[in-house]
Amino acid sequence: MNRCKQAHGTAFAVSQDDFTRAMRDASLPIPLGLVDQDGSSAGRRFSVYRNNIAVSLREAMHSAFPVITKLLGTENMNGLSRLFLHAHPPKSPLMMFYGAEFPNFLEAQPQLSHLGYLGDVARLELAMRQAYHAADATPIAPDTLVGLSEDALLTSRLTFAPALHLLQSPWPIEAIWRFNTVPQAPAPQAGAQAVIITRPEFDPVLQLFPAAGAVWLDALQQGASIGAALQRATATDADFDLSFPLTLLLQGGAITGLERKR
Amino acid sequence: MPAAISPAPALNALPSAPGVGYKPQHFSQILTDAAPVKWLEIHAENYMGDGGRPVAQLRHLAELFPISVHGVGLSIGGEAALDTTHLARLQRLLAWLEPSSFSEHLAWSTHEGHFYNDLLPLPYTDATLTRVCDHIDQLQAAIGRPMLLENPSSYLAFAESTWSEPEFLTEISRRTGCGLLLDVNNVFVSANNLGFSPQGYIDDFALERVGEIHLGGHDSDTDDQGRPLLIDSHGCAVVDPVWALLDYTLERAGPKPVLIEWDTDVPDWPLLAAEAERAAFALGHLPAVASEPVVRA
Description:
The structure holds 2 protein chains of 2 kinds.
Chain A: H1 16-24, E1 34-35, H2 44-64, H3 66-72, H4 74-87, H5 102-107, H6 118-133, H7 150-154, E2 157-160, E3 165-169, H8 173-179, E4 193-198, E5 205-209, H9 211-221, H10 226-236, H11 243-251, E6 255-259
Antiparallel strand pairs in A: 2-6, 3-4, 4-5
Chain B: E1 18-21, H1 27-32, E2 39-43, H2 53-64, E3 67-70, H3 84-97, E4 101-105, E5 108-111, E6 114-120, H4 126-143, E7 148-150, E8 157-158, H5 165-176, E9 179-183, H6 184-194, H7 198-204, E10 210-216, E11 218-222, E12 228-232, H8 240-253, E13 258-261, H9 269-284
Helix pairs in contact in B: 4-5, 7-8
């Protein structure tokens, strides 16, 4: 019954090298040993694989970067995705994390140099996706910090939930993201923005973060004490008040530990 | 009391009843109105993240339903060695989930470290038989349970093949002890595309080694000669001739776990549940012949 059992011998062995090369480059001929039921060249039948792969990876890029897709338009996004897939084919079956090189790739495209914000918006979309899949973590109770003496608070270090992301950009990335995802959101105004992404339960939450707060949080993430981080923040903004950024982090369930100085 | 003699491990522990491929958009309806769906299948790779909603939903569902884990990324038919990093991810998932079944494909998707996000075909030769068996031996040793291996959808053939697909799968099952996952839609698609009889394929298939049956929808195109070329898409309802082929299969195999796969253009829950209802009808109306004994690995 299976015609492929005919004795064709091994004259036209097709290696996976042959197969993938022809699949990635439609200008190459179809490997000779790929046939239909009559032993004729597979022809269009091989294109099914070329097409499946192109479509599945293109769709993966659309769902990974919906805001970039909206900003560029579907047709431009498809063209860029093709170039990107060629330069950075997936290396892991975990497609949920595909596209990590896309922000740098966008920034390296000369024809996109007038859209300088694309790279940071793509970084934001990547971070939202990473936050969605990040490990679960148990936040500290908000009153953990209540009752600490000022000295105890300032000498403490904080640990954070894996879902927490901090991004600082010279572009209004929060406004761009919101304008393209939330109906009736105001149009973005030029200017730098820092954001945090937290995941109080299952949905990542994007919030604007004060610029000096970003300096403070960045220092904390690198292991500085709350006081040392505060010094760095007040060096950029003398009026910096840590109560607001601290509240955002606590509300977002982003602080998982307080390490008292011993 | 004397210790009970533990039976040899079965191919899997899924009920011979309808299941569906789980889609997150159906989560709340599954909790309130699952009938006639008795079990769920997930794609392993979608639940290999560290946490968050996908893992939480899966934990919840696993308390209520038997779960089948269906891998799409191990590249068992690949020329290269199995990706041990990916194998370790699979071990972790199976260890905490303890699913009722694990299955993968007679196909490859990774070559030279690049992942192609599709199930690619391999020739059926003595050399590829040995390679696939080695990979399955390694996999089953790593996960400590028998797996089911699924027959592919074929759009073309390899001139170098010397085995028919049913014979190739039977021999793999014999050598490795793995069970088989019979995708009836894939049989229908391949039979059309390569010009063989789907019933003849079922007749040649090692039905006693089948631990699960898949059903899904397919698209239609044409080849260079203008002949219909069917494409496995899992994007629409199962067509009548495939339901008929399911009946033909169940009449010979006896009751089996039957899964509806609908992965793209995912329908609303009532439509998917109606497909499962039709599978329940097929399972409930088998001629009263003695069914096959429970298969042991």
